[in-house]
Specification:
With 154 residues, this protein is α+β, with helices and mostly antiparallel strands. The chain has a single domain, classed as Nuclear Transport Factor 2, Chain: A. Helices cover 27% and strands 40% of the residues. The chain is built from five helices and eight strands; from the N terminus they run H-H-E-E-H-E-E-E-E-E-E-H-H. It has helices at 4-14, 22-27, 49-59, 129-135, 142-148, and strands spanning 29-37, 42-45, 64-73, 76-86, 91-93, 96-98, 104-116, 119-127. Strands 2-1-8-7-4-3 form a six-stranded mixed beta sheet. A two-stranded antiparallel sheet has the order 5-6. A hairpin with a 4-residue loop joins strand 1 and strand 2. The longest helix has 11 residues, at 4-14. The chain starts with a helix and ends in a 6-residue tail after the last helix.
């Protein structure tokens, strides 16, 4: 049986834009496993898990994850990484789709993987979404937020 670190490293390999094996990625998870995109408050369970990969790869088809540190403590694997790619696909938002800019992203992230018996039970991805949005030219609109709250800065 592969070590927990080997399973996690395989998950990253299968999620690369040049490989993108969503069936293989899903197979690394327990039947009821979860993929939690923490900053975006999204949870993908079971057979929904591949949607997390295809959605991001549709926006950044050359997606790459540079692993900076990988630390294992029993059934938990903690990874510090940078998510990199080129904004070549439409980025859906509640206000509409941000068209491709061709901008490169280099977003810091930390992932926690929880495994049992060689299968991923839970994957919590903590990424700096605000950094990525700024890199594609979609910095927060604080003025609009203040105005929508009914107060105007003077």
């Amino acid at each position: 049986m592969k070590s927990n670190e080997e399973v996690v490293r395989e998950a990253y390999r299968l999620a690369e834009g040049a490989v993108l094996d969503i069936r293989g990625f899903r197979a690394l998870f327990a039947e009821d496993g979860t993929f939690n995109d923490i900053p975006n408050a999204q949870t993908f369970r079971g057979d929904e898990i591949p949607r997390a990969l295809t959605g991001f790869a549709g926006i950044f088809p050359d997606i790459h994850r540079e692993l900076l540190e990988v630390n294992t403590l029993g059934d938990v694997v903690a990874v510090e990484l940078r998510i990199q790619g080129t904004h070549l696909g439409g980025f859906p938002t509640p206000a509409g789709v941000i068209p491709p800019t061709g901008n490169r992203i280099d977003m810091p992230a930390a992932d926690l993987w929880y495994l049992r018996d060689g299968r991923i039970e839970r994957f919590n991805c903590y990424n700096a979404t605000s950094v990525m949005l700024a890199q594609i030219g979609a910095a927060p609109d604080f003025t609009a937020a203040i105005e929508s709250a009914g107060t105007v800065a003077r």
